[in-house]
Write a structure and sequence with these properties.
Strand order of the largest sheet: 3-2-1-12-13-7
Low-confidence stretches: none
Largest sheet: 6 strands, parallel
Bound molecules: 5'-O-[(L-methionyl)-sulphamoyl]adenosine
Number of strands: 16
Radius of gyration: 26 Å
Distance between the termini: 43 Å
Shape: elongated
Oligomer: single chain
Structural class: alpha/beta
CATH superfamily of one domain: Isoleucyl-tRNA Synthetase, Domain 1
CATH architecture of one domain: Orthogonal Bundle
């Protein structure tokens, strides 16, 4: 992995307020970014909104306000939610910005000069919710979109087309040469199957949509929302000054930009096709460097059922945070769902998970050790040389590498699991050593053994507190405050055994994590 880490979330549609699906991708992206920061890498998280197209145009119309005002409002809602969820993003992309508008037009012209854009008549069936064309054979009952279950619309226009078919072999060869390009692996197989079925050129402009970026040299049409939005990953990296300058040259500016290409685009499985096929072909056509990886995560359901407004079973992320706290929300979705697979939310499993892991395993271990240190060691770390060959030390030393390996493979749930396996080991060790009994003994050596078990546990908890920072930053900061520490971005220091100083006082944080009722 290179020294820089640049991750993107999808740019979310502003037709409605943010939902748990968008929150899920963004929490995962944030934990990955924070993790690589912890590792000392320069990291960049880009998120944002996708504002153009027929769907948003008609939502604004139904609200009787102009599309820009509508987009400004919803865009602010996304930002509010990201603040509430502790998302540490560096760039927020807005596709209605002037800068983005200019980048999209420049890109269109580069592809046009390459000879990959032509005009033709298009007839097809369109799903407004997907903002995509559908084949008749994939429709439910011959008329409903298989993803959104809404009727598709007949569509017939003279449009500008992108010569996607020209890139089928090139993408196919690229995937063969890069077998780990799309993760999880089974999604790469899906994409290969689509390409083998054949790729058709597709229209990249619309006459009927007004809310969009005009085609350069033909303002009777606007650019298709996907051909516009994907470029938000790139336009947002550039400054207003350089893009709005009269001499702006997209190709040259990009080649000088050291964060391009992205380390990974994190997306939901439903938009894999747009990224793995359309986007890759677009970049190939323009001659721009390709992203290093695509990761397609699964879909969330509630109580085993698909979520939807009409079903009345959507999860409102703000409400969940207000009820259970931000770290509980982050932890549940990161820990309970193997990243890449579909996952479910139910209030009962949520509470059971949070109580079992945050309140019991972690909270109890902290309170046990702190109480013993307060009662028997004057709230200070006892003088006790640590042996880095002890079983706990060996496990602690192996833990940070294990977590790093899982994070390299986007196994966020496994990274968390290995941290909690270690917490279990420490709980078990204390239960076996029983320092509370040893302190009652007359023998001095018993006291020494008890103290050793406490110092080892504290050292282990310091490592755990740091390792948990990317996933549950607030709780981790509270845990680190026990040692009067803040999160580090020095991996060696984090993984070190015998870091804590003898005599250092231990701060009691009170209840670390209260049980959910
Ligand atoms: N605007 C496009 C993305 C353009 S990227 C240049 C878009 N937006 S979206 O708002 O509809 O979806 C954004 C993300 O939310 C997608 O990654 C999608 O997979 C995800 N989710 C939507 N519903 C979801 C669940 N129920 N569960 C998990 N994620 C889901 O597509």
């Amino acid at each position: 992995m290179s020294e820089k880490f640049f991750i993107t979330t999808p740019l979310y549609y502003v037709n409605a307020e943010p939902h748990i699906g968008s929150a899920y991708t963004t929490i995962a992206a944030d934990s990955l970014t924070r993790f690589w920061k912890l590792f000392g890498k320069e990291s960049l998280l880009l998120t944002g909104v996708d504002e153009h197209g027929g769907k948003i145009e008609s939502t604004a119309e139904s609200r009787n306000i102009n599309p820009q005002t509508h987009c400004d409002e919803i865009s602010d809602k996304f930002k509010e939610l990201w603040t509430k969820l502790n998302i540490d993003y560096q760039k927020f992309s807005r596709t209605s910005s002037e800068k983005h508008n200019k980048v999209v037009k420049s890109f269109f012209q580069i592809v046009q000069e390459k000879g990959d854009i032509y005009q033709a008549e298009y007839k097809g069936l369109y799903c407004l919710a997907c903002e995509d064309f559908k084949n008749e054979r994939e429709l439910i009952n011959g008329k409903l979109c298989p993803i959104h279950q809404i009727p598709v619309q007949e569509y017939s226009e003279n449009n500008y087309f992108f010569a996607l078919s020209k890139y089928a072999n090139k993408i196919s060869n690229f995937l063969k040469d890069n077998p780990d390009f799309i993760k999880p692996k089974f999604r790469q197989n899906e994409v290969e199957a689509w390409i083998n079925e054949g790729l058709k050129d597709f229209p990249i402009s619309r006459r009927s949509v007004k809310w969009g970026i005009p085609v350069p040299g033909d303002d009777t049409q606007t650019i298709y929302v996907w051909f516009d939005a994907l470029l938000g990953y790139l336009s947002t990296l550039l400054s207003d000054e350089e893009v709005l300058d009269l001499d702006f040259d997209l190709k040259k500016t990009l080649s000088e930009f050291d964060f391009w290409p992205p380390s990974v685009h994190l997306i939901g499985k439903d938009i894999l096709r747009f990224h793995a096929v359309y986007w890759i072909a677009m970049l190939m056509s323009a001659g721009f460097p390709l992203p290093k990886k695509l990761f397609g995560h699964g879909f969330l359901t509630k109580d085993g059922e698909k979520m939807g407004k009409t079903r009345g079973n959507i999860i409102v992320p703000q409400e969940l945070i207000d009820q259970f706290g931000v770290d509980a929300v982050r932890f549940y979705f990161l820990f309970n769902i193997p990243f890449g697979q579909d996952g479910d939310y139910s209030e009962q499993v949520f509470k059971e998970t949070i109580n079992a892991y945050l309140a019991n395993r972690l909270g109890n271990l902290f309170s046990r050790v702190i109480k013993l240190i307060e009662n028997h060691c004057e709230s200070r770390i006892p003088l006790m040389p640590l042996d880095s060959n002890s079983p706990i030390a060996q496990k602690a030393l192996g833990l940070s590498n294990k977590v790093k390996e899982h994070m390299e493979n986007y196994e966020i749930h496994d990274a968390l699991k290995s941290i909690f396996d270690f917490v279990d080991e420490m709980n078990l060790n204390l239960t076996e050593v029983k320092p509370w009994n040893l302190f009652k003994s007359e023998e001095k050596t018993d006291h020494q053994i008890a103290k050793l078990s406490l110092v080892e546990t504290l050292e282990g908890l310091r490592i755990v507190s740091n390792l948990l920072y990317p996933f549950i930053p607030e709780l981790s900061s509270k845990m680190l405050s026990v040692f009067s520490l803040k999160e580090t971005n020095n991996w060696e220091e984090l993984s070190k055994w015998s870091y804590l100083q003898t005599g250092m006082s231990i701060q009691n944080p009170g209840v670390l994590f209260g049980r959910l009722k």
